Amino acid sequence: MREERWVFEEEPTHIPARDKPKLECSQVVIATVEKKHCGEVLKVLTREAPLGEYKHVKRIRNRAVEEGKGLEGETKANGKGRADVLEVVVCTSHPQEGGGWPVGTRGVEGGEPRGAAAAAGVQGDAWECMPSALKSVLLPLVCRVSLAEVPRHSPEDREQLQDWNRVWPVSYKVPAGKVVTRSAKIKVSEEDKHEMLKHLGLVRELATGESGQRREAGCGACNAAVIVNPTTKEVVGLGQDQTKSTDWTTWDSRLVHAPSPLRHAAMVAIENVAEGVRSWGNKRKRSDTETGGDTAPSVSDRGDGDPEAEPYLCTGFDCYLWREPCTMCAMALVHSRVRRITFCVPDPKWGALGGAFRLHSLTSLNHHYEVFHWPVIEASKP
Amino acid sequence: MTPTTEFSDGEEGFMRLALAEATKAFGEGEIPVGCVLVRGGEVVGRGGNKTNESRNGSRHCEMEAIDEVLGKFEAGSLEVGSDCAMSKFWSEVDLYVTCEPCIMCAGAISLMGIKNVYYGCSNDKFGGCGSVHPVSDQGCGTCGGGEERFGAENVRSFRCRKGLFAEEAIAMLQDFYLRGNARAPKPHRKVLWMDRREQQQEH
């Protein structure tokens, strides 16, 4: 068997239909606690000030370890014995709107929000931010109380996790496998993943393999798209990038002998599906006038209504691409009413489904699909 | 319904031709949007929406008109050979369309290297020239892994001028939706094969 240059990773990543969250910070009160008191402090805090909507924030930070990783921190002047203390998030520095975390903060005395600049060396102020119930319990257990910033929201991916951890350690839940999407109908089960990989294998072959069409197109690095009917699991259309091709045919059979920068893989694949629908329609027209006994192709059977009804564009179909689609292709797939898009190679500069922006987050569009990124890694060369 | 004075007689004339393409599309049961491509004061391509006939949701009038022009290259009616000449050719093409190009078509316009677009009414559902997403400013890249596009690398944006015969373009779309789109899935309204003007005469 031939060694593949590109290898699929194990899980796809769902790209949600909202803009990527930006780093926002909230001010919190933190306590410096000796390791031996940590257990007790946590017990109190879990009971008196649960994290609520700050569940992504790790309650404890080991400053020594964090700094060992090369993260920014205070000067080394106070370094002695630091390994023996931990920093613990106590509560927010001001009451939260609509309750939530931390429960106790309603009892804040003079609880004005304080700027980050004021935080340095204002132990008194930080102490005043704490609810009185906590003060009395924590007084004998903590060395020092101060203010710090933590990320307000949970990071969306590993990259953000890494970035945001520099502010304060947060956690990130790998979403794949348990994804509940906008419609809550599309979940990625093991069976689904198997199916996705099968079609992505074809996409990889069309985009990077040694297929004749590709050589003919003279395309070094290509894109390919495959459109699948998930009900029948059959490929209903496919296309390779033809932007370098000097000979191609329009949908209405006109020959063109000039290259078109619009002959992207997704556009060609959509055209391929339409071709199937048209020929099915023509066949049916003929059989209506003749005897009947028409065998409707798989393209018509979507399991969502009348199998005799002509399919409408690519409604309910899934599209697999090697590269992240550009703006034109991503919008063409919206017009085609595709159900789900999965691509492998992201394009941070021009990609329209997470790279440069997220087309599917635009709420005014009349159709929305789900988007998955299935990462690939380049196999190390021998 | 008088056009504003911002536009020249020539520009109005070309938009009238685009409206004629839209009317033709309407007669063929297509969404009535039309466009013409103009170079050096001459119409080099024209097209109407063909999404229904082609069963392809991406066959908007801009795509039809662009492919029409590309198809002429073989016939020798346009003397264009190298990629460089292609770039120059397309940078001199003006596009007149009755309705704001959608996000897809705005991407195509950027990829072709067309620099000037005139449109009638705005499209607040799909508009790619600022109404929904500013593709006209940001441009569109390629997703084929190379840089197969016309026009200079740095210039992907294009200039838009809107409002030329906007009312006429809107009236035609209203007529269409009043009639109902025969091919839309499970039509919400009954399809009336009747012109709005005929209806008005009945009343």
TrEMBL record, chain A:
Residues 191-372 form the CMP/dCMP-type deaminase domain. The keyword Plastid does not apply. Pfam families: dCMP_cyt_deam_1. InterPro entries: CMP_dCMP_dom, Cytidine_deaminase-like. One of its GO terms (cellular component) is cytoplasm. It comes from the Eukaryota. GO terms for biological process: tRNA processing. GO terms for molecular function: tRNA-specific adenosine-34 deaminase activity. The keyword DNA repair does not apply. Belongs to the cytidine and deoxycytidylate deaminase family. ADAT3 subfamily. This is Cytidine deaminase-like protein.
From TrEMBL, chain B:
GO terms for biological process: tRNA wobble adenosine to inosine editing. Keywords: Hydrolase. PROSITE patterns: CYT_DCMP_DEAMINASES_2 (PS51747). It comes from the Eukaryota. The keyword Hydrolase applies. One of its GO terms (molecular function) is tRNA-specific adenosine-34 deaminase activity. It holds the Pfam family dCMP_cyt_deam_1. Gene3D superfamilies: Cytidine Deaminase, domain 2 (3.40.140.10). Transmembrane segments: none annotated. Residues 9-140 form the CMP/dCMP-type deaminase domain. The keyword Hydrolase applies. PANTHER family: CYTOSINE DEAMINASE FAMILY MEMBER, TRNA-SPECIFIC ADENOSINE DEAMINASE 2. This is Cytidine deaminase. It comes from Chloropicon primus.
